[in-house]
Amino acid sequence: MYFSLAGAIFATFASALFLALLFIRILFRFLLLVACFGSALVSFSRALHFYLYYYLR
Hints:
Elements: H1 2-55
């Protein structure tokens, strides 16, 4: 009985840890994607702003 209880507790903790690591990996990839697109958008908007400011005034 004790072995099955310990196995169930271990399996529960192992699955919870696996799901937490999977969620952290997905969240990290999403944040990396958002950071890349955000920096590209900021660079594009700055370039557009300088273009419009210097060439169309």
